[in-house]
Amino acid sequence: MKTRYSQIALLALLxxxxxxxxxxxxxxxxxxxxxxxxxxxxMDMVWENPEMGEFETxxxxxxxxxxxxxxxxxxxxxxxxxxxxxSAYVQGVEYQIxxxxxxxxxxxxxxxxMVQHSMLRTFNPLVLLEKEPWSxxxxxxxxxxxxxxxxxVEMDTVIDGREVYLENHLWINPANLLPAxxxxxxxxxxxxxxxIECSYDGWKLEDSAEPFVVDFPKGYLTKVAGNTESPLLKVxxxxxxxxxxxxxxxxxxxxDYRGKKVLLDFxxxxxxxxxxxxxQFAKPDYEFADDIxxxxxxxxxxxxxxxxxxxxxxxxxxxxxxxxxxxxDYGVNGFPTFYLIDETGKIEEVTQxxxxxxxxxWKKKSE
Length: 367
Hints:
The chain has 367 residues and is α+β, with helices and mostly antiparallel strands. The protein is built from nine helices and 20 strands. It has a 13-stranded mixed sheet with strand order 1-8-9-10-11-12-2-3-4-5-6-7-13, covered by helices on one side. The protein has a five-stranded mixed sheet with strand order 18-17-16-19-20, with no helix packed on it.
C-alpha cells in the first residue's frame, strides 16, 4: 500500500524531531554502512528463470569485514543455506568449500571477475548503496514496516534491435537506516524478462572486527585452480575429442567432422547472453558459413531440462547436454564460450562472452 512521504514528515514533527528528506535518509544509511568495520546479515533471494517458468530460492548468511587491500574493500565469507557449500574471499584469495565431497578450491584472485560477479558481492547492500544515481520513488508499507523506495537505472540501451532496460529498486527502513529489500528488474522490448528479489535481515553492525582466519575442517582436500583444473585451451593445439548423445540419442563425435570447421557453443540455460546468442543463430536471415558445423554443448544442465528449455527456445543445431566432463576438458569457466575447431581438429579460435561482431563473423557471407 502506497502512502505519502508527508505522513513521515508529520510524524517526525509530532515527535519534535527535525524531519529528514528521503535523500538525507539514504545518505545516512550509506554512511552507517560505510562506518561499520564488520557487517553481518542474512540474504534471501528469489531468482527467476523466465524461460523455464521456474523460481530458485537461495539463502546466504554473510559476513563482511573491512580490508582496504581487498578487491572492493571487504573480505567476506558466505554460507549457502542447505547447499552444503561455502565461499570466502580473504586477503586476495578465493575459497570455494564443498562439504559434500570434502574439498576446498582456492585461487589467487586479486582482481578476479568471479569475485566481481559473485552473488554475495553483487547483491549485498555494501555494494548497492555505492551505485549512482539512486532516486527516491516513494514510501511503502511492507509487513507493517514503513520503507522508503529508491531506484537506479543500470541499463537503457538497444542491443541488436532489442530494447534492453535494467532497473534496480532498494527499500530502506528509516527507523534503523538499514536496507530491507532489493529488486533487480530486466525488461526486453518493454516486457518483463527476469526479476531477482532479495530480502535482508539478521543485521549486525560492529565498529571493530578481527581479520578472517582461514580454517577449514580437517581431512578436506585442497584443489588449487590452475593446477588441478585446466584453463581455456590455447589456439593451435589439438582439440580434445569427445562423444556425446544428441537429443535423439544419436552419438556425436568431434572427430566425425574432420574436413569441416566445428563451432562449439558452450552454453547453459540460466544465462541471458547465451539465450541472446541462440536467438541470433535462429533468425531467418542467419545461416552459418558452408564450412562450419555448429554444436550446442551444455556442461551444466540435464537432458530433461534441455528438452523443456527447447520447447520455448529454438536451438537450430544439435544439442549435447550432460557434458560436464567436456566442459572441464575445454577449461570452460564462463558462458557463453565458443571454440572454433579447424578442418584438422585444431583449435582456431577461442571466444568468451557475447558480442554482435563475434556472432556475425560465423555467418555465411552474402553473394
